[in-house]
Amino acid sequence: MKPEYQESWVNKGVCLLILGRYEKAIYAYDKALEIKPDFYEAWNSKGNCMLYLGRYEQGIYAFDKALKIKPDFYEAWNSKGNCMLYLGRYEQGIYAFDKALKIKPDFYEAWNSKGNCMLYLGRYEQGIYAFDKALEIKPDKNEAWGNKGIALSALERYEEAIAALEKSLEIKPDYEASINNLGLVKYEIGKIDEAIEHWQAVIEINNQFVEPKLAIGVALYNKGKISESLTIAEAALKLDKSWGNLQRLKKELWGEKLLADAAKLLENPQIKVLLSESKE
Predict the structure, then answer these.
(1) Mean of all residue pLDDT scores within the chain
(2) Which end of the chain is less packed: N or C, by CB atoms within 10 Å?
(3) Looking only at Cα atoms, what is the longest distance across the chain?
(4) Which residue range is the domain that position 234 belongs to?
(5) What is the CATH classification number for the domain harbouring 131?
(6) Which UniProt keywords apply (predicted)?
(7) Which of 212, 182, 218 is closest to 199 using CA atoms?
């Protein structure tokens, strides 16, 4: 490969990106940009590497460079929006997704991600609207059905939420998020044993998933199975102690009943000792 060929460097970067070798891909994109600083595709691809590496601020910088050169590059607007979403800058995320959608109104990914921003902002009706727009474009996308189910549950429209989550699982039966969220909904309507079954099914798929383990611990604690509940709750919190915080659970859209029962578990002296150890 002749070093002056910027397209060759970008093509090499694309191959490395596909292989998940993001640092080497960034090197290739930087080589392309040394030759052609206004190569917007290279800036965009470099931004995607940063996004995958969790370097969201650097990703935003790269996407902004691409957009300065090509303002109608809707993929870059969408990727910039995703960086904002992951940084918790939801209003800025919505702005970026709207820019993408103004250019390409049938862009499924932007509608779905905009809906996620609305979820985190508590704008559940607007979230449902965005997910419905996404599903008009791609009705077979399990993520959008699952996200719609979360929004409906937050509005206490539980039967509709169950229908949306079950639709998600018709499309992808092992979709952990929807199985888990189905458990959250079932708990709120008093179907505790069914909720536990859903959470156990998630753990069978992914035994490192903290949320369903903690939820089972909460459910068992509420049933009076104290020893069993503490064992599983401690195992969950040892994986990630940030879950031992009611504000975190609210952010994850746990319902009022499950939150109230979680508060009781988190007040248990054994759990409080475990959580205090994390702060030392």
Answers:
(1) 94
(2) C
(3) 71
(4) 174-275
(5) 1.25.40.10
(6) Repeat, TPR repeat
(7) 212
